[in-house]
Amino acid sequence: MSAVFDHLPSRLFFPLASVHREHYAALLLIYYRLFLEYHSGVERELVVSAFDDYFRSLASVPEPDEGDAEGPDASEPGDVAGGETPARVDRGDTRVAASGFLRRLIEYGWMNEEEQQDFARIINISSYATPFFEALYRVEQGISVEYESHVIGIYSSLVGDAARDHGEHAVINAHGHVRMLVESLKVLHQNIRRHIQALYDGDPEVHEILHIHYDLYMNEVIDRAYNRRKTSENLSKYRPKILSAVARYLANDGWLGRTAEKLAVIKRLSVSGARDLLRSLLTEIRDELKNLDPLLTQIDDKNRRYSRISTERIKARLYSDASVAGKIKQILAAWADGAGAGAGPRTLAHGIYRHRRLDAGSLYTRRTRVLDDNAFTIAPADDFDLERAEAELLLRIRNQLSPERIAGFLEPFCPRDGSSVPAHTIVSDMESFVRVIYAAAYAESRDERFPFRVLWYDDEVSSGRFAFRRHDFSRRRSP
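Above: the chain's sequence. Below: its structure in token form.
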């Protein structure tokens, strides 16, 4: 590991370990956003102005750690090693603080300053610091890049014409997307786990649980990654074609030879070495995609577990007094609030009984259940219900209760101009009564698929011995 600092300055990480690490991190992110906007670096005056705006937003302005610039053994005031609280500068000196912090970041190696021919001073990122800027930026964004179109990148690289004509670039690009896909799925898995742990930390109220679930979890997990994984970027949709393309390229010796020659030039390898590398990359792409199922299953399980735990925590908060544990908690709370020995039980909805002595009546004995003889008697069924059940059974046997048959039953009764017909005028016997009941059910549940609609009223009507809630049938108008 010592070879790392052959490329990195020894004091690169001092800002993130100092007493001002929060300010240093905020300033690094401010500069990184400016750097992303400008293609050829950021002018020093613009950086200082952005830093000045940051310090003006603070209640008090910190002074740069002068001791850090001299080394870890410095003992001046404000030095991290000295452990003293850094001094504060006046609110009017925010620009001085901005320039001082920028100078420290340049000295630590995060940035470098270049003077142009027109004497403009440009601040650029040091090449070795680029990954650390990206890491800070991703942490601040809440790791919001899970599952960002990596499946589409793999698919477009291998399945399209790019792999056939320029396989040396397409395979390398697809391999990179596979690595990022696996990494992003692991991040998604850990992100769900972090939200599950947040439900157990402390004792959140119902509104806090709802905020965590519908604001934080839905925004950071469901909307950003999980929904895409299950819908537009579903791996099961693209994986078969990707695996088929990989198998086709591995079996095509002509393609492997042509692509290996081009890859050898890029990687400065022999043709045989490039061919082995090409086969290794394709094999790794195939194996990684095949082995994703356990991880995908764990993600689905954790998402279901999070939803279940969130619901259970809400129920526990809303109905805590209904459970045995809730009642015990209520008893203890009443005792704690009571003024005397007997104050607790009188504040409860249920009583607590004291036993000053033990006798035979204090022991638990199993209660015998005495059943009434009437419990085994079956009440005779109503004649009307029996007749209706018999008619319904016969109609089902003749297959006359399907939506098509019921629609055919209503056909001669409902006018084609769309006017309504009362249902009680259709009922003449038990079979027509059963058909009317099914017609109302189909008209409500099947929406546009059933050619008739039903309109309900609040009063009841009767037709002979049949009484039911008044309703009308009418034809649906053709679009």
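The chain has a mean pLDDT of 76.
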